[in-house]
Structure to design on (269 residues):
């Protein structure tokens, strides 16, 4: 008999936010323009034998440079869940945009899990175009190159398993090698969709977010995500403020800061 698949706890940490307009968030704009806020998250997978951090957020310096509202350091926030950046063994980077990789220096011991096409994209020919490089910071990309030279990057090419109960899936679209993460929890497999959809509404209406490398892959990614999730309540978008409302706080004092994604949503959306 094979071993049962491990069951993980799963958390979202909200560390920054930004006011925006609906037209900013959909390719082709939006006929009903109005305010539409965007939140910034990192995610924590907690298991009996293994903890994994998914994306590490940006630094306070980057928040000033890019005019984002910084709520808290995402890496210090790991301590709310009993983890630390210094001791984290496994860090998944869904892609190399500044808001997903920016705090990498605070994870000195981690093995990085990244799609090979994302490394190629972030270091390749397209990065001379501002429309494609604006969400990357070259120093952060160079740091990932350094980690690779130090043997600290595990590359995936397509779908792969990080560990039993944690799988990685290449989507592309928003970035050349964007991946999403599937985690086995007590309520089934949950898909951390990352930036395959910034908002539920990107998927629900089939309209990708405006930062996009390949629109065809971005639209197809909605189906890739849906295929890996048992229901729409098992899909977690990358930047949607609704996530903080739909899921219960990890502790009463963490409302609006850390929610538990492995608990059922509090209401239908
Ligand atoms: Zn992104």
């Amino acid at each position: 008999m094979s071993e049962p698949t491990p069951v993980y706890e799963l958390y979202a940490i909200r560390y920054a936010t930004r006011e925006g307009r609906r037209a900013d968030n959909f390719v082709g704009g939006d006929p009903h323009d109005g305010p539409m806020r965007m939140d910034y998250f990192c995610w924590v997978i907690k298991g009996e034998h293994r903890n994994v951090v998914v994306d590490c957020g940006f630094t306070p310096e980057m928040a000033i440079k890019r005019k984002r509202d910084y709520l808290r350091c995402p890496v210090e926030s790991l301590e709310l869940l009993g983890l630390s950046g210094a001791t984290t063994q496994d860090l998944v980077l869904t892609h190399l945009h500044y808001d997903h990789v920016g705090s990498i220096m605070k994870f000195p011991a981690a093995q990085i899990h990244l799609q090979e096409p994302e490394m190629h994209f972030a270091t390749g020919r397209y990065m001379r175009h501002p429309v494609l490089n604006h969400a990357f910071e070259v120093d952060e990309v160079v740091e990932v190159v350094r980690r690779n030279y130090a043997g600290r990057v595990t590359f995936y090419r397509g779908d792969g398993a990080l560990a039993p109960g944690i799988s990685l899936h290449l989507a592309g679209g928003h970035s050349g090698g964007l991946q999403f993460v599937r985690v086995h929890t007590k309520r089934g497999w949950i898909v951390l969709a990352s930036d395959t959809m910034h908002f539920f509404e990107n998927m629900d209406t089939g309209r990708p977010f405006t930062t996009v490398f390949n629109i065809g892959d971005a639209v197809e990614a909605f189906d890739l995500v849906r295929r890996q999730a048992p229901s729409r309540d098992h899909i977690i978008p990358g930047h949607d403020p609704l996530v903080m409302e739909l899921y219960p706080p990890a502790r009463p004092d963490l409302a609006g800061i850390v929610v538990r994604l492995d608990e059922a949503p509090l209401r239908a959306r």
Q: What stands out?
A: The mean pLDDT is 97. The first helix runs from residue 60 to 65.
